[in-house]
Amino acid sequence: MRKFLTGSVLARCLVLLGLLPVAVFADELNGADTAWMLTSTALVLFMTIPGLALFYAGLVRAKNVLSVLMQCFAITCMATVLWVVVGYSIAFGDGGAVNAWYGGFGKAFLNGVGRDALSGAIPETVFSMFQMTFAIITPALVVGGFAERMRFSAVMLFSGIWLLVVYAPVCHWVWGGGWLGQMGLLDFAGGTVVHINAAVAALVAALVLGKRKGFPTTPMMPHNLVMTVTGASMLWFGWFGFNAGSALAANGDAGMAMLVTHLGAATGSLAWMAVEWIRHGKPSVLGIVTGMVAGLGTITPASGYVGPMGAIVIGLTAGVVCFYATQFIKRTLQIDDSLDVFPVHGVGGILGTMMAGLFVAASLGGVGLADGVSISDQLMTQLIGVVATLVWSGGLTWVILKGVSLVVDLRVSDEEENQGLDVVLHDETGYNL
User: Fold this and answer.
1) What fold, for 28-426?
2) I need a surface site. Which of 12, 87, 264, 430 has the fewest CB within 10 A?
3) pTM exceeding the 0.90 threshold for the entire prediction
4) What's the pLDDT score for residue 187?
5) CB 134 within 8 A of CB 171
């Protein structure tokens, strides 16, 4: 009888132990984290095609709709190959003595990234693929700066070089163990790496190529706002993988990042809509979806560090400031950043990166500052990250464009621009009505 009771108690204890959470160590695969990261990877890829592609395509004129879709699709394919060949290694490899600046070529062709290789608690194949989707969408964002006037051959050559020379090193600085990460820069999901980086490149490209024929006197209205809203909705959906996935785990950080991401999008939309309504008497569909993108871009660097109240302030600020930045760039400076990449993503990225340094404070609902770091110290680090990205991306983008212009013509002729890039460059039309 005693043996039976002892065995029964032991069996119950084993059952109870089986119900307890299993500790997972850094070098041990976590199935839940892996499943979440696989999902996040698909979500971020969904942001570029079809999300960003449709968003941009609806904003251009009908004669250029296919050109934008083609550019986003082709960049996705090219960036994928370049990332595997050498991009991942530059961003996340061990660069030895120069590790603070770039990762070197030790992981070229994903050397050492096999089935059993881990990055924390997830397969390194999944981590590299997740990071690949960021490397895809960033040069695709730049397309908005030169839409409707850049030759496809120049787009491909520029985008490929830019990915390896500009994007991958900045990615290493922030996320790959580089100097900005070592300084303590707070950039959870890409305020500097993605948004400021791409936006400055778009602005420089717009200046180098010059204005579209007729800008700013000739109205250049979006040809299909239904397409734009559809793409914007896909961006909103995919952005959960972008920000919450950057936690690299299925945990509380991912949950909070998802919540504040949604708040940033909603409040950014409402703020933009309100300002437009007050100024022009009517709210526009284009305005509310642009406000959404501004809110998302601005909350991105702060998404893993701030709480709900911080997210609301960030989103509201983004909607107002990015609205006026768009007016200033287009109307006052008359820079033809075709699809408002810099005033939305650039200004939003700068705002979000700086505000991450403020709202990270525990007293303001954030996760708290590192030991011994004051708010002023953190804001200075954030400013250094912003300025470094602006200078690096702006300077090298200009050099790359000038270099590409020695090989191929950057811009179509006036006659070709009038005819439309779809027919001239691809011998197709988006609509046969």
Assistant:
1) Ammonium transporter fold (1.10.3430)
2) 12
3) yes
4) 98
5) yes
